[in-house]
Design a protein that fits this description.
The protein is α/β, with parallel strands linked by helices. It is built from five helices and six strands. It binds guanosine-5'-diphosphate. The site of guanosine-5'-diphosphate has 20 residues, from helix 1.
Length: 189
């Protein structure tokens, strides 16, 4: 799992496993380490969930995401990655860059929009549409507070962990799941 600092990664991990294993905080840039959890769930095969340092806050002249997360992901190209984005801030440059980078670097990746409970119905529809349009991929809305989307997220994680190739897209050839409107053809005079 990767995402900007404060995107809600620790809260989501705690909500997924229904216990407080990951430290949460309102202070951005707090998580400096990669945390690794062995997840054993029901009869499914156990897998390792790796909580990589957030990006977007470069403190002390070094960017944790650039240093730790990129090295980690590069050395394990076969792994699947979940990129978390904040549903309230669609289209942030750092998220777009992370997504573009992931698509060319890791075997399989998927997108999750956090804190969806913070948006009213209309805002939520607009935000999800914008997210899927700029990222050119489907995005799963979730909330660590209300539990919305967590069952779907477990299904996505199971599928990524057990069958990552299903989530692999050939570089630059897959059509966007939400194509933008085509520009009108110029009128002939
Ligand atoms: P991290 O830095 O990505 O690990 O982010 P945290 O999990 O520490 O969350 C950052 C802040 O967002 C904390 O104040 C959380 O309580 C809050 N937060 C996280 N997830 C949610 C969510 O789904 N809904 C709401 N309303 N707040 C959330």
């Amino acid at each position: 799992m990767i995402g900007r600092s404060n995107v809600g990664k620790s809260s989501l991990i705690n909500a997924l496993v229904r216990r407080s294993v990951a430290r949460t905080s309102g202070a951005p840039g707090k998580t400096r380490l990669a945390n690794i959890y062995r997840v054993a769930r029901g009869s499914s095969s156990p897998f390792y969930l790796v909580d990589l340092p957030g990006y977007g806050y470069a403190r002390g002249g070094s960017d944790d995401f650039a240093r730790i997360s990129e090295d980690y992901l590069r050395s394990r190209r076969g792994q699947a990655v979940l990129l978390l984005v904040d549903s309230r801030h669609p289209g942030l440059q750092s998220d777009l860059e992370a997504w573009r980078w992931l698509k060319t670097t890791v075997a399989a990746s998927a997108l999750v929009a956090t804190k969806i409970d913070k948006l009213a119905r209309g805002e939520r529809i607009r935000a999800m549409r914008e997210l899927e349009s700029v990222l050119e991929h489907s995005v799963l809305p979730v909330s660590a507070v209300t539990g919305e989307g967590l069952d779907e997220l477990w299904n996505l994680i199971d599928s990524l962990a057990n069958n990552p190739l299903r989530h692999r897209r050939p570089a630059a050839t897959a059509p966007p799941s939400h194509p933008r409107k085509k520009a009108p053809l110029p009128l002939k005079k």
